[in-house]
Amino acid sequence: MKMISPILISTALLLAGCSQASSPDRTTAEGGAVEHKPMTATEHAAMAGPTKPVSTEMPQSARTASATGTVESVNAAAGTITLAHGPVDALGWPAMTMGFKATPQQIASLKAGQLVRFEFASQGMDATIIEIALAQQ
Predict the structure, then answer these.
(1) pTM score, two decimals?
(2) Nearest to residue 58, comparing CAs of 111, 101, 116, 15?
């Protein structure tokens, strides 16, 4: 007869406990009903802690590359620009359409349909514009 690992049994019990739906009629240790109420925006903000400003500085482990592409859209409120760019040989990327982080100054004068040359920092698929300018057609 095979012996079942205590780790396997513990894992199975933990998973079984996690997958059970919570009971709506739960009680406190004192026997009173647990009241569930929505959190206010202030409570959410307090739990989230201080917010960090969005940085467009190049992370230490980021790689830089440059490409040419067409502006698909600009979202100044989110600080992003969507570009349809050609292959980026330096990173082994094929041609694609993707969003890039950018400063308000970098995207202020850009609009959909414009051809641009840009340099960016990439950490995985997270890319941040370093420099962007209209390309000569």
Answers:
(1) 0.56
(2) 101
Taking only the tens place, the pLDDT of each residue in 60-93 is: 567 999 999 999 999 999 999 999 999 999 988 9
Enumerate the β-bridge partners of residue 128.
101, 121
Contact criterion met (CB below 8 Å) for 114 and 132:
no
Residue whose C-alpha is closest to residue 113's, from 78, 77, 81, 88 = 81
Domains and CATH numbers, the chain: 63-134 (2.40.50.320)
SS3 17: helix
- Cα–Cα separations (whole angstroms), residue 71 to 3, 58, 100, 120, 125: 62, 22, 11, 15, 18
Q: How many CB atoms lie within 10 A of CB 129?
A: 21
